[in-house]
Design a protein that fits this description.
The structure is a homodimer. By secondary structure, chain A is α+β, with helices and mostly antiparallel strands. Helices cover about 40% and strands about 25% of the residues of chain A. The longest helix of chain A is centred in the middle third of the chain and has 25 residues. At the A-B interface, β5 and α3 of A face β5 and α3 of B. The first copy, chain A, binds a DNA duplex (30 and 30 nucleotides) through α6.
DNA sequence: CGTCCGTTTGAGCCCCGTCAATGTATGTGG
DNA sequence: CCACATACATTGACGGGGCTCAAACGGACG
């Protein structure tokens, strides 16, 4: 875990993150408030209940936002990808855990300072509103995807979403990718159990819709069939 | 359905809605862009797929934000209460339906105009970000509440939420309120079926935890027991 | 090689969705 | 005012999908 100061000029998401809305002078001022940090898989950036002291932009890797219910089962509420923004603005203490799903790099700001920056730089405020609106849309689409549907449907749409993310160019045919999430994490995201997720994957493999390569590799053989199942 | 111009001075939510962030002059300018409208129960303010032309502040009544999956079953993604703000900013077309659950009054703005106002009045932008962050929190808490829990748990927490909303003063004991939602709507919100919702309600009544007064009236007899069941 | 962690597979059971019938409230027209 | 229609709610019977419990399997690493 390193804590260097910021080097925006080599930032991999400088064109698309919220801070891209700033001009050079403003960006420099903002950079002075934050620092760079690396996270190893499993390491947490923020813990539920703790003082909600930081917000951050994700540069590399994947984060998850999670909660735990009474009996200790994990629920994944959102996945965060590079250029994404995390941290609950305005909330005195954090509601959810933010944990790295893979080794990751973030750009961390003290929450208070960031809130002040939002006031000082209206363009940053607008970018934040845009991101927040998007997050809201995604949270709702996850909500719609996760309730009242069968296990296969959930798993199939999950795989489709990953395939789309991994292969931005719309080539209808086979694509291969590695799962960032464990079975348990997929289960926590979809509201299922580990066993059910596993069973649905073998079922899809038996039906020649996907092909598994090790525990993490997925090859989509029949994208059309997969969408069919996901409907 | 009337379409009068705005009268902010008698607005029931003038102190707490997003526009409360504006000073008198700014508010007057914003008021010039919008108009007042009444909705009857079941009437929709915005339909999924349609051009996303409006946004609105709710003055009175309750709205729902819904989607429909392939087989036509409704999913309620959010309930909106007075002072709440609806309308998908930045999206070219609407993703979800917005429908009145009760007779309602809203304050409607052309979306474009409202977006411009957000830029012109930074304080309004900040208020919008605050609201959006809150919506996000609520969407996530619904997501957590609705997945991986039993039917009784869902129904019980739903009743508790309503009781809290109806009775802001924290009196631990019995409170009475009327359901705004039909069984079908409760089911669509919790990801259950009408029959299951009904059964859980009679079950809670048999256990002397609640008492039903007609189809809509609910009397909470044992709040502690209810939280117990909801956990 | 043995341990640890994640994954797979199996067997059994229960919750909840489905289908169907009945009950209740509200409104409408004759 | 009653007959009827309509919409919503309740209750019952039944079957299946997914959770639970349990065991075996596989890869990574010391």
């Amino acid at each position: 875990m390193s804590r260097d100061s910021l080097a925006c000029n080599v930032c991999p998401v400088r064109e698309i993150a919220a801070c891209a809305a700033l001009n050079d002078r403003e960006r420099e001022e903002l950079a002075g408030l934050g620092h760079h940090r690396t996270l190893k898989r499993g390491q947490s950036l923020l813990e539920a209940g703790a003082d909600n002291t930081v917000s951050a932009t994700l540069l590399k890797g994947v984060l998850k936002i999670t909660s735990f219910d009474e009996d200790g089962t994990e629920r994944i509420l959102s996945l965060i990808h590079p250029a994404g923004f995390v941290g609950e603005l305005f909330a005195p203490s954090a509601h959810y855990d933010i944990v790295a799903l893979s080794d990751a790099e973030v750009c961390v700001f003290p929450r208070r300072e960031y809130e002040k920056a939002l006031e000082r730089f209206p363009s940053l405020g607008r970018a934040a509103l845009r991101r927040s609106s998007n997050e809201l849309l995604e949270a709702r689409s996850l909500l719609a995807a996760v309730t009242g549907r069968t296990a296969v449907q959930k798993v199939a749409s999950f795989l489709l979403a990953l395939a789309r993310a991994a292969n931005p160019h719309e080539t209808g045919h086979a694509s291969r990718f590695d799962l960032v999430l464990t079975r348990g994490e997929i289960a926590a995201l979809l509201g299922l159990t580990i066993e059910t997720v596993s069973r649905q994957l073998t079922r899809l493999e038996n039906e020649r819709i996907i092909l598994r390569d090790g525990a993490r590799g997925i090859l989509i053989q029949d994208a059309a069939g997969l969408s069919q199942v996901a409907r």
